[in-house]
Structures are given as structure tokens and as C-alpha cells.
Prior knowledge:
Largest sheet: 9 strands, mixed
Strand order of the largest sheet: 3-2-5-6-9-8-7-1-4
Shape: elongated
Number of strands: 9
Radius of gyration: 18 Å
Number of helices: 1
Order of helices and strands: HEEEEEEEEE
Structural class: mainly beta
Strand content: over 45%
Number of domains: 1
Amino acid sequence: xxxxxxxxxxxMLAGCAFFGLPRPDPAQAWIDLESKQADTKLQALEVDDKAxxxxxxxxxxxxxxxxxxxxxFSVQPTNIGPDAEPLWRDCQLNVKFNDxxxxxxxxxxxxxxxxxxxxxxxxxxxxxxxxxxxxxxxHS
Length: 140
């Protein structure tokens, strides 16, 4: 019996990993996340001060929303000093947009210039419709 439960649990985990993201709800707006640099991590944290269920994307009702993301990145020694080691930053950014539309896909991109993180929200036509504002950073 134990083996059956363990096997079932492993199959469920494998299924989630295999199928990836859920299908977007056509009655909501979908926001994909993308970081510009390879050694970074961008996660969905909150929509309108409520924690998200999945850190890989946002899905919101039409209208106005504030998205909070966590962006982790490395500041290279060239931005710190000649004998420095890379410094990891763990930042939160808020992005407000007043006109999310049902069935539309948006893309939230993040990157950094030295110590400063940035985020931009793009609509389906690749037009910038929102900018991130820093909400605090820590060194990791």
C-alpha cells in the first residue's frame, strides 16, 4: 500500500513537471515572466497585495492591478571594484497597470544595470505599458 501511494505521488509530480504551465483562462489576462540575463531569477509574488499561487506567471481579472515580483541577480565585480566578488541582490519591484484585458497576453521583463533592478510590462504588440518601481533590495 505504501508503495502504491509513493508511486502515485511521484506520477503526479512528474505530470506537473511534464505539462508545465496551465492553459490561460480566456476571461483573464495572462502575464509571462522573463529575465534578461541568464544567471537571474524572476518570480511572481503578489497581485494587489495577495500572494500568488504559482511563482511562474500572473493571471488576473480585467482592469487595474499592481503586480509584485521578486528579482534575484548578480552584480558583477566590474560594477563594484577590482578585487570584489560578485554580489547577489534580492529585490522586489511593483508594476502597476490600469487596463489589463481579458484574453490578452502580456510579458513582464526584468533586468539590472549594476545594482539597480528594472522591470517593464509589454502588451501583445511589444509596446511598453508599465514600468517597475523598486520596493526594496537585500544582499543575499
